[in-house]
Write a structure and sequence with these properties.
By secondary structure, this protein is mainly α. The chain has five helices and no strands. The protein is about 60% helix and about 0% strand. α2 runs antiparallel to α3 and α3 runs antiparallel to α5. The protein starts with 14 loop residues before the first helix and ends in a 30-residue tail after the last helix. It comes from Mesorhabditis spiculigera.
Length: about 180
């Protein structure tokens, strides 16, 4: 047996064609059944893993606003109570972003809707609660800065002027 008898047959273009012809070149006692079962098990594990990743991604999106709450608290603490342009802008952005997210819940979870993830209602509720927490923090910060009109003295402009009912003509002239 010389080396000229050994050669590589590259006439088969696809892997499927090579595996179909491999039965003719298989050693005695070799069976491809185990490989097809293994490919089926790997495909099933891959779909289970994909389903797990989709559910995990949905929970990551849902927990995002809640995870950002401690950072927002720290930023509002660092902004202080002074009324200047930067703290007001920070509070305005902290109020605007979650309000915008509250109105776009369905579009946020649209890419995650799949039959493998099931119902996304708990995810959406957690997402709504997290954003409501951030809105509540922004409103509290507006209150501590004194920009939220919640005292009677804040509304004096709209209170009608008191009318006198009685006039006194005699004063304290007893000397």
């Amino acid at each position: 047996m010389s080396l000229s008898q050994w050669r590589i047959d590259s006439s088969h273009a696809s892997r499927a064609a090579r595996t179909a012809d491999s039965a003719a070149y298989s050693p005695p006692g070799f069976s491809n059944v185990g490989q097809t079962v293994q490919h089926h098990v790997e495909a099933e594990q891959s779909s289970d893993q994909q389903e797990h990743l989709m559910k995990k991604r949905a929970w990551d999106v849902a927990m995002g606003p809640g995870k950002s709450l401690p950072m927002n608290m720290f930023m509002m603490y660092m902004a202080g109570r002074s009324i200047s342009i930067f703290p007001i802008m920070m509070v305005a952005m902290m109020l605007w972003r979650p309000l915008k997210a509250l109105f776009s819940v369905n579009s946020t979870f649209k890419p995650l809707e799949h039959e493998s993830t099931g119902s996304l209602l708990p995810h959406k509720l957690v997402f709504l609660l997290g954003n409501c927490g951030v809105v509540a923090l922004a409103i509290y910060k507006i209150h501590t800065m004194g920009l939220l009109p919640n005292y009677d003295s804040d509304w004096l402009e709209f209170v009608p002027e008191a009318r006198r009912i009685q006039y006194t003509l005699v004063g304290d002239l007893f000397v």
